[in-house]
Amino acid sequence: MGFCIEVSGDFACFTRPEMKVERVSYDVITPSAARAIFEAILWKPAIEWHIHKIEVLKPVRWVNIRRNEVGAVLPVGNINKAMKGGALPVLYVEEARQQRAGLFLRDVAYRIHARFSLTEKAGPSDNAGKFADMFKRRAKKGQCFNQPYLGCREFSCGFHLVEDVKQHDSAISVSRALGWMLYDMDYQERAEPTPLFFNAAMKDGVIEVPEKQSEGVIG
Fold it and tell me: Which pTM does this prediction carry?
């Protein structure tokens, strides 16, 4: 069973992992970022989302932004002590501020096609129809567990359910290779998550996303 949503936002940044300091976005949304949007609308341990197609609805536009970021975090131990009545931890922004340049996307819109499968955590009362109805109901009402975002949490996005793709605008008429792109992170049977990649290509604005277990996905 497949589902489709359209998402849009003023800015987006799907960060290339090879960029260590400055944030530089991929040309389009990654499958992992698209999956996170579906999970923001409906996530349960009993289901796992799979992205199989991405349609780019607006031309790829770029913007350079220089931002102030904090280059430090509060130690978890200090926070735990504060929760137990200890002294409140302090982080002085002026001392930890760092200025970073970023190459982001602007004025983006995508139509994302996905499906879900039941996991080993599904119970006897769980079935695909139950979760399908839950997703459609939540997506129609604009409900979400957390605000969906486009790569970075500060770049929130709007979304709506697409029930008939034929009644919506077509993808952009652009075809080109996008190169190796982050597919997702593999957490199964590994001490540390391993990044997975696939060789992405856009044909008439459409990116076909391979199955995770296919030869087109490497880690």
Answer: 0.87
* Residues 37, 12 contacting (CB under 8 angstroms): no
Beta-strand pair 217-218/194-203:
antiparallel
Query: How would you label 148-169 residue by residue, b for 16+ Cβ within 10 Å and e otherwise?
Result: bbbbbeebebebebbeeeeeee
Which domain CATH number covers 145? Answer: 3.30.70.2660
Q: Mind listing the pLDDT tens digit for each residue in 165-208?
A: 888 889 999 999 999 999 998 887 666 788 999 999 999 999 99
Helix axes 31-41, 128-141, angle to 10 degrees: 90
Identify the domain containing residue 53 by its residue range. 2-218
> Using CA atoms, how far apart are residues 20 and 14, in angstroms rounded to an integer?
14
Rg of the chain in Å (alpha carbons): 19
